[in-house]
Design brief:
With 288 residues, the protein is an alpha/beta fold. Helices cover 48% and strands 12% of the residues. Helix 8 packs across helix 9.
Length: 288
């Protein structure tokens, strides 16, 4: 009976081995400077070309740009640097600034010293300790980037990130920084924080516990909707870069009309307007 079961057990064991995720490795790390972390496959998927906006085209965020660029440059040269949280209104250039600073710093470094940008999805933060353990074994420098970070409650992802940023036994590897963007100042809904304050025995302690994660980012940069003049500066910069054949008067009029229809003025709105304008001016019937 036991002998008859052996082939079946061997097939089951073989099937389980195939289903188990492969051990994570740093294979291909030197092939490019950007990756997406795929925890379900235990791999870093290479990104050959990062979609970034040149740093000089990001208008209206000068102080944020200087602060993040300097922090990234310090990190690239092995100097002390801080984890960074970029928070504020949607479309104001938060993720664009992260990618632009990464590109701007790397262009000044030899290829073998480039900083690697690794994007991690909000849903994959529970695997962050595994990723950091892997990166700790490398000689390269890494920025782990999570776009649009927020939490509805203190779930396991919240606790994993909180531990990694500051409180874990192993600590953050010296060759890794964590950059994140969020539309929420303290990463959690305002009503959740207010609810804790109203029901807790010690309201101030409850609130401080909820916002303690954001406090673990040493660099905290706020982004806000821009003025009309700043919005037009953005539009002019994009138009000049693309050498669009349009007068400033017409450009301004069309840009303001576009912003009015969107009910918003931001870097994202400016970029969307320029894309639409570029296509409009390129139509053969418009050139005739």
């Amino acid at each position: 009976m036991t002998t008859d079961l052996m082939p079946v057990l061997e097939r089951i064991a073989s099937a389980l081995e195939r289903l188990a995720p492969p051990a994570a490795t740093l294979d291909g790390l030197n092939s490019t400077d950007a990756f997406v972390w795929q925890p379900e496959r235990s791999r870093l998927a290479p990104v050959e070309q990062v979609a970034h906006v040149p740093l000089n085209l990001l208008q209206g965020i000068e102080s944020q740009r200087i602060a993040l660029l300097e922090n990234t440059r310090h990190f690239a040269h092995g100097l002390p640097a801080n984890n960074a949280m970029l928070w504020g209104s949607r479309g104001t250039g938060k993720s664009s600034l992260v990618k632009a600073c990464h590109a701007a710093v790397n262009v000044q470094l030899p290829a073998d010293k480039h900083v690697v940008l690794i994007e991690i999805e909000r849903e994959d933060l529970a695997s962050l300790p595994d990723l950091l353990a892997l990166l700790r074994t490398s000689d390269r420098h890494f920025i782990v980037f999570c776009d649009d970070l927020s939490f509805e409650r203190e779930d396991r992802d919240y606790k994993a990130l909180k531990s990694v940023l500051d409180g874990g036994i192993a600590g953050r590897p010296a060759n890794v920084l964590f950059y994140a963007t969020s539309n929420r100042r303290h990463l959690m809904p305002r009503d959740m924080i207010d609810n804790e304050q109203s029901t807790a025995i010690n309201p101030s302690e409850a609130v401080e516990e909820k916002i303690s994660l954001s406090d673990r980012f040493g660099l905290w940069l706020g982004f806000h909707l821009c003025s009309q003049d700043t919005y037009l500066d953005m539009v002019r910069a994009y138009a000049h870069e693309r050498q669009l054949p349009i007068t400033d008067k017409d450009l301004v009029a069309r840009a303001l009309e576009w912003a009015t229809t969107r009910g918003n003025r931001s870097g994202r709105v400016a970029a969307q307007f320029i894309d639409d304008l570029t296509a409009d001016l390129a139509e053969p019937t418009k050139k005739a």
